[in-house]
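Lab notebook, design round three. We kept the backbone fixed and only want residue identities now. Task for the bench partner: fill in a sequence for the structure below.
Input structure tokens:
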């Protein structure tokens, strides 16, 4: 589950970053894709001036925190299953 979450979030980061580098309408879906990476993406806002470094650091952070998100989803799933 963590691998799926990480794959979705990291791909959204790279596609969103590519969308922001283009002029015109591709910036809109690029911005919306980057919204999938909140709140962890704020941890690396100091590297925003170097887009490649920002995307690489963001990928590392998102891959690591995807484990925490997966654990939270599994915990919530088991709590709801016990309550039902």
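Proposed sequence:
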């Amino acid at each position: 589950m963590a691998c799926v979450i990480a794959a979705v979030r990291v791909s959204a980061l790279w596609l969103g970053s590519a969308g922001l580098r283009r002029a015109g309408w591709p910036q809109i879906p690029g911005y919306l894709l980057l919204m999938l990476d909140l709140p962890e993406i704020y941890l690396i806002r100091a590297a925003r001036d170097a887009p490649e470094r920002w995307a690489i650091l963001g990928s590392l952070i998102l891959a690591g925190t995807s484990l925490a998100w997966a654990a939270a989803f599994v915990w919530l799933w088991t709590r709801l299953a016990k309550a039902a």
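Keep this in mind before ordering anything: Residues 1 and 73 are 9 Å apart (CA to CA).
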